[in-house]
Write a structure and sequence with these properties.
Blueprint: H1 2-21, H2 27-38, H3 40-48, H4 53-67, H5 76-80, H6 93-110, H7 115-125, H8 152-163, E1 165-166, E2 169-177, E3 180-185
Antiparallel strand pairs: 1-2, 2-3
Helix pairs in contact: 1-2, 1-4, 3-6, 6-8
């Protein structure tokens, strides 16, 4: 199953980027190719199923390998940063995947008793009234063993949501929403 979900998509990612390697693209051009053509199929899959850590590292290495064929000339954190801070808004696939998973919380809680949302709502409600689960501050699954019985996908959604909290304003969350970012009060 992992092969169909991830390894095949990673091979397609490599093929797409290999087609563009021969062209003399600028740094901004390479980042644009990554954002528009390379990661589109990965984004959908990563928001629907679990993304194993070994693939996150592989995907990021492929993306940054496309930008710098030998060694990195600019630190990755700098490339990922905002333009106003000297960055180029390059994609960090782990952060993108986590922010899109965190967005599931709002979709689930704001749904009007749709069939697809009944199971996660039941799981979330089992942790206390008034969505108590989302007022906690844990950033990994091991630090909150009460969700041990949850399916791995929902564990990842909850942890991603908690990671998205703004430490200065605990009732505010930061999500990446379709290429732009959005601050949400909850």
């Amino acid at each position: 199953m992992e092969q169909a979900n991830w390894e095949d998509k990673i091979e397609k990612l490599k093929k797409v980027l290999d087609q563009w390697k021969r062209r003399d693209l600028t740094l901004m051009g390479k980042i644009l190719i990554i954002k528009t053509l390379a990661i589109s199929s990965l984004i959908f899959t990563s928001t629907m199923i679990t993304l194993p850590n070994k693939y996150i590292k592989t995907i990021n290495n492929i993306l940054f390998g496309f930008i710098w064929p030998s060694r990195d000339r600019i630190k990755r954190n700098t490339l990922i940063g905002e333009k106003k801070d000297g960055g180029l808004k390059m994609v960090d696939f782990q952060s993108l995947s986590e922010s899109m998973k965190a967005g599931w919380v709002l979709r689930i809680l704001n749904s009007e008793n749709n069939n697809w949302s009944l199971i996660p709502k039941y799981l979330f409600a089992s942790m206390g009234q008034n969505n108590h689960l989302f007022n906690m501050t844990f950033t990994n699954i091991k630090s909150f063993p009460n969700i041990e019985s949850f399916p791995l996908f929902y564990k990842e959604v909850i942890v991603a949501f908690n990671k998205s909290k703004n430490p200065d304003k605990p009732d505010k969350y930061h999500f990446i929403n379709g290429g732009g970012s959005q601050n949400v009060s909850f």
